[in-house]
Specification:
With 300 residues, the chain is an alpha/beta fold. The chain folds into two domains: 2-112 and 232-299, 3-Layer(bba) Sandwich (FAD/NAD(P)-binding domain); 116-226, FAD/NAD(P)-binding domain, CATH 3.50.50.60. 25% of the residues lie in helices and 26% in strands. Strands 1, 2, 3, 4, 5, 6 and 17 form a seven-stranded mixed sheet that branches. A five-stranded parallel sheet has the order 8-15-9-10-11, with helices on one face. A hairpin with a 4-residue loop joins strand 5 and strand 6. The two termini are 25 Å apart.
């Protein structure tokens, strides 16, 4: 059975950054990637210095090419289904291909996935509907936009944020009422609120054109921002008995070490909240440095 110094699970920016750093530290690393990273649906990635506007596919291809320079890094395109600790204190990783691997350390960098209150949103997500104004606000500046969200706190936050890029805003709550305070605050800025349930989104090839309500109204909008809920795509942290806080965030020190010795976390997985490519990559680097230092101390 193959044995590694560290197995990195997840081929997003956090996992790729960690694998590169560990490879350069002469560690034997396996990076598991099943091509489910969240940003694969978008047209371009923004805000990563020297790579602004790059497509997610190009970003990942460049990173994978860089990993090839380090012979101790293996990239395995498999889905991990089970991680468990052996009596030897090594971790056993099993995949959907019925293959098993051993490792001294595990880095969880599997990211998160969106869940939408309206299934049809996914047809437009990454093309004309987005979740991060810092990533995609520039491309939608000054356009007639929609804010799609059901929670009042989320609506208030996202609307105020997007107002920085476009003041032509309309809010759609999908049947959920908002407080008088929010109504008055938005009305002062000529932001119209629609509280009727959404019947259907209209558009072509992922480009939003209008939003139809159950009242029969059909409001023209050319794009917008949505507030999804986010979930971890697996229960690895729970399987490994990592401690979670009251918000279901995985508890860890500032360098990615969880409450379970040998298990580390990086990227969006920790907080179940979205992050930029640059922040996720930086967290992957920090976790890799922590892993390498722990290996040095244990073996010296």
């Amino acid at each position: 059975m193959n044995k590694y110094d560290c197995i990195v699970i997840g081929g997003g920016p956090a996992g790729l950054s960690a694998a590169l750093t560990l490879g350069r530290a002469r560690r034997k690393v396996a990076l598991f990637d099943n091509e489910t990273n969240r940003n694969r649906v978008t047209q371009a990635s923004h805000g990563f210095l020297t790579r602004d506007g790059i497509t997610p596919l190009q970003f990942k291809s460049i990173a994978m090419k860089e990993l090839e320079a380090y012979p101790t890094i293996s990239v395995l395109h498999q889905t991990v289904i089970v991680i468990k600790k052996e009596e030897t204190n090594l971790f056993l990783v099993q995949t959907a291909n019925n293959e098993s691997y051993l490792s001294e350390k595990i880095l969880l960098a599997t990211g998160i996935q969106e869940e939408f209150f309206l299934a049809q949103i996914r047809q437009y997500y990454g093309k004309s509907l987005f979740s991060c104004p810092y990533c995609d606000g520039w491309e939608l500046k000054e356009k007639p936009l929609a804010i799609l969200a059901e929670n009042e706190e989320h609506i208030q936050h996202m609307t105020k944020l997007v107002y920085n890029w476009s003041q032509d805003l309309m809010v759609f709550t999908n049947g959920n009422p908002l407080s008088n305070e929010i109504h008055h605050e938005f009305e002062r800025r000529k932001i119209k609120i629609y509280t009727a349930p959404i019947k259907k989104l209209h558009g072509e090839h992922g480009n939003l054109q209008s939003i139809e309500l159950t009242t029969g109204e059909n409001i023209a909008r050319s794009g917008g921002f949505v507030v999804p809920s986010f979930t971890r795509p697996n229960k690895f942290a729970e399987q490994l008995h990592c401690q979670l806080d009251e918000n279901q965030c995985i508890m860890a020190d500032g360098a990615g070490q969880t409450t379970v010795n040998g298990i580390y976390i990086a990227g969006e997985t920790k907080k179940v909240a979205p992050s930029s490519l640059m922040i996720a990559a930086a967290e992957g680097f920090k976790a890799a440095v922590s892993i390498n230092m722990d290996l040095i101390v244990e073996r010296f």
